[in-house]
Fold this sequence. Notes:
Blueprint: E1 48-52, H1 59-68, E2 74-78, H2 84-89, E3 95-99, E4 107-115, E5 117-122, E6 133-134, H3 169-176, E7 183-186, H4 187-192, E8 198-204, E9 209-216, H5 224-231
Parallel strand pairs: 1-2, 1-3, 6-8
Antiparallel strand pairs: 3-9, 4-9, 5-7, 5-8
Amino acid sequence: MATRGGPQRKGSRPAPARSRAVAAKPKAKPAQNLRNDPATPPPSYGPFRLGAIPGATPGKWIDTWKTRMPRIALELVPLTVAGQRDAVARGNVDAAIVRLPIDRDGLHVIPLYEETPVVVCSVDSHLTAADDLALDDLAGEVRIVPRDDVLSFDAPGTEPPRFTAPGTTGDAVETVATGVGIVIVPMSLARLHHRKDVTFRPLTGAPASVVALAWPVEGASEHVDTFVGIVRGRTSNSSR
């Protein structure tokens, strides 16, 4: 028998009636919050600009920074002692390893370590006979004081040179290598400007040179506290 909609073939089944029910649409997933999603690393900012005066040795702190802050680059910016304060105060660097004394107005300053002054002399100098020297041992020596000198103390009994003072410590050491005079510098600078024709001896009784970390009181980088914690030996889990 014919059915509505046309004849029904033998062995076929009628098509099921279309359901009026509308299939529920899957609920849209909420937008992923990248800031709070633990699977998404936070964005990186930087670099963290660390100034450093000649002779500074921040290598161990930089290594710790790279381990603890792998997404924040650290840029090492060479500074002169004469320009160290302006670099920090004007924001050219986020923080700086500086040499004291420094005008602390508007700056946070924490001492890091002290350096022993040394006497740099020619390898042929009679001063090399001693393992260390006292100020009295320098009587009669020509003391060369470069224009970038970082040690502000007198050495009684020494003589000024009869030539214009060299502009840099490196130039002064080069002059000393010829056998003319001595230069007194922190040990790190003696090592920085080491030559085969000069040597140095520790100078006892002279004030030590203090190296410190400085950063601005106002407008400090958000990463300064992390670096301060590193130089102070705080672990990544330590509280402030």
